Each structure stands twice: as C-alpha cells, then as structure tokens.
Structure prediction request, 479 residues.
Amino acid sequence: MVIYRSTRGLSPPVPFDQAVLEGFSADGGLFVPDPVPRLTDARLQHWKSLGYVDLAKEVMSCYIDPEVVPKQDLGRLLDDSFTAFEHPDPPLVPLDKDGQSWILELFHGPTLSFKDIAMGFLIRMMDYLLDRNDERLSLILATTGDTGPAAAYAAAGRERINCWPLYPAGMISLEQEMQMTTVGAENVCPVAVHGCSNGGDDLDVVAARLFGDEPLKKRLKLSSVNSINIGRVLMQTVHYFYAYFRVAERLGDPLIFSIPAGAFGNFCGGALARAMGLPIQFVCATNKNGTLHRIFSQGVFAKRPLRHSLSSAIDIVVPYNFWRFLYLASSGDAELVNRAVVEFERDGTVQFDDALYDKLRYGVVSTSVSDARTLSTMSDLFQRTGYLLDPHGAVAVAGAEQCREKFAGDIACVSVATAHPAKFPEVIKQALPAGRQLPEAALHPSIEMAKQAATRLLTCRLEELEHRLQEEIETSLRG
Ligand SMILES: *Cc1c(COP(=O)(O)O)cnc(C)c1O
Prediction:
C-alpha cells in the first residue's frame, strides 16, 4: 500500500485520492509517496520496450493502489489523457553523430508544453474522483505561462471542475495568453493580474493565503493543480524512464538529464525516477533567477528579487518543489524539512550544513544560463542544423554544455525541451538575424487558430485579487 506523507510531517498520511484532490497537505507541506518503489532489473527489462502510454500505466500503478483506483479505470484515464496529443511517444532528437547528446521533445500535447503531459492526466483523475464522490472543485492556479493553458485545456467542459488560471499580466507571451483565453468553455476563467512585481510568485502567495484559510478552502472547494500537486510530479517520472530506455545502450548505463528548472516539479519527477532505481544524473539548468543554482553550488536556499528573462516560464523565485527534493535527499526526514521551511519563511534564507549539502548535490550539478547564451544557443543550433529550440529547451542545451566537464567520462546527455518554439516568437526573432522571417518551425496551426477565436478573461490588480476571486468562485458555486 502506497500512502502519501506530508514533507513537514505534521499531518497524518493520506491515500492517493485524497492527496490529489487536496493538493497541499493540511500542515502546509507537500505530499510525497511512501514507500518509493524500488524496481528490479527484471521489471526494468520488461518496461524497456513499452510505448509511452503503456509505460505510464506501469509506472503510475506503482503509486496508485488498485483499491484506490481500479487498474482498468487508471488505464482508461491514461489512454484518454493522450488523445489530444499529436503522438504520445515523445521524440528523441540526436544532436551529434555519436549518440552523446540528445533532445527530448516533450511539447507535442494540445498546448505545446510539457505541462500537458501531467495536467491532462491529473485533471482527468480529479474529475473521475470527484464524480465518484459526487463533489465539485474550484481550481486556482498561478502560472508563469504554460501551466495555465495546459490546465485550461484539460479542464474545459469538465462538469465537476471550475478553473481559474491566474497570470501576471504582461509577463507571459501573447501566444500563451491566447491559449488560455480562447478555450471557449464556461468553466474556465483566466485572470490577468496587474501589479505583480514578483511575477508568478506574487500569485503563489495569494493562492497560499486562500489555501491556508481552512474554512474558506472548504467553503469554496479550493484545490490546486500547480506542481505542488503530487499527481503531476508522479506523472513526470514517466518521461525519464521512456528517454532512458531509448538512449541508454544497456540497462545500468549512466545517463544525464539536463532540465530547465522553474518550480522544480519536473526535476522532482526525475529525482523520483532515480529513487526508483534509474541510474540517472542531473544538470539543474536555471536562468538568471538562479535560486536552485545557489542551492546546488553554495548550499544556500535564498530568495532574491525576480529578474525577467527570455525563458519566462522558469522565472521563479521560490521553487517550492525543492522541499520534496529535500525530503527525498534526507531519506524522509520530515522534521528536518519542517525546520528548514520555518527558517525559510522567517528569514527568506536557509543554509544547509555540509553533510546535508553533500546529499543534496549527489548526482546533481547546476548552472545559470544568461539570456545572451540562451539566444546564441538557439541561433547556433538553428544555423548549423535547422533545428529550432524554444528558449527553455535552449536553457537545457546550454546548461548541458556549461556543465560538460563536471561529469566524469563520456556519459550521454538528454536535454529536456519543455515547450514548442511557436509559443515564443518574440524570442525567436531576437535569436535570428534581424529582418529574417519566422521560420516554418516557429509556427504551429493551433496557435494560428487561437488568433481567430473569441476570448474570455477577467482583469484585476494584485491587491484586489484575493477578494475578487472569492466573489467569483462563490458565484460560480451558486450557479
Ligand atoms: C513549467 C515550465 C518549466 C519548468 O518546470 P518546473 O516543473 O516548474 O520546474 C520549464 N519549461 C517550460 C516551458 C515550462 O512551461
């Protein structure tokens, strides 16, 4: 039986369904699975040849007991999650001739970012559980650009869910904004919030306040599908297995993943896959908001003011999934995590002692990629091969290059491309020579279609957001 514990250890563990529907644990911690299953070689051997959806069924049934969700229902939900994808198997693109450098394209879902993979599953799972319990939920989620579209698309038309994606106005690309505001569903209402000097983090603060008010949370039936939700992190373990099986020559060979890290949820999926027995190592690639880089290079978790970068989806000051990583790295020491959270909330900074810092760094190197390097990585690769990266995939590729010499021997590296370039035409224009037209690879029919569709959105200022949201949600629940 897998149970879900809080990283802070102050609330009793809960089963999968409750962890997914509640998002946060009652003590404010994040849910983590216990035990993390260890896979045998025979099991890995069997998984090696599976396609993505079948692999996802295997991986997810390690975490979801059949008494909680019958295997058949889980299988159906996973099948359904990928129907809107161009193809469920993510392509692996070689960047060289000797098989040392690869790109894993995770952006072939309906809103062209890797968030579709986990969001499509999570929202279907929630809808299924809500239906079973005859309940409803109001989802509020802060987005730095891609969570909102993925959630809006997955939630559109689902009877038991109302969805309020919140985004910092003017800080996401026009394309991302359109993807959210044109889904054309009554139950999805994006909110453009003005005055967020700390970007998406300001919205996280409002969301955390609402979630922290237990009576209000109950009354408004609030939950979240940000990557605080363990359902997303679990689903994000699958692509590490999938890519490993495609790239590693033999089971047991080491492999590096370079991951553009924002809230650190995708990375935590990789950390879980490693804890399950996959022999993988990581490059934690950040942009100039290098909170995570400071953790892995200096042993300090410290907030710094937000800086806007060209890789805006990872402009994050507090990568909240780090607490999950700390929990895993400290072998489930919830007391330690809780102390660190309290210290961080009080001082805005935590310094880890040497022993813990060594555990954190095990198999992880980090780097910070400048905007100039992001652009030159995009333009060099495009001019050399015609392959166009989005700015986040570029952070991964540049991060892998910057960390090359930190790994012993010739270990192959997979850079995780998290978004389609069509979501960031303004950055592409900057990367390519002046006056050059957008190449074919920077266009996508779904974005062109969104330009024609009717929009729906609410606008408000950060100071009004809390109040305004409450009103809107109350109205929706009466309706
Ligand atoms: C969300 C996002 C990331 C960061 O993922 P996290 O799980 O938040 O670390 C990276 N790239 C893109 C394009 C994203 O949308």
User: Anything to note?
Assistant: The chain has a mean pLDDT of 95. The CA atoms of residues 171 and 234 lie 29 Å apart. The pocket of pyridoxal-5'-phosphate is lined by residues 113, 115, 146, 227, 260-267, 313-314, 392, 418-419 (CB under 6 Å).
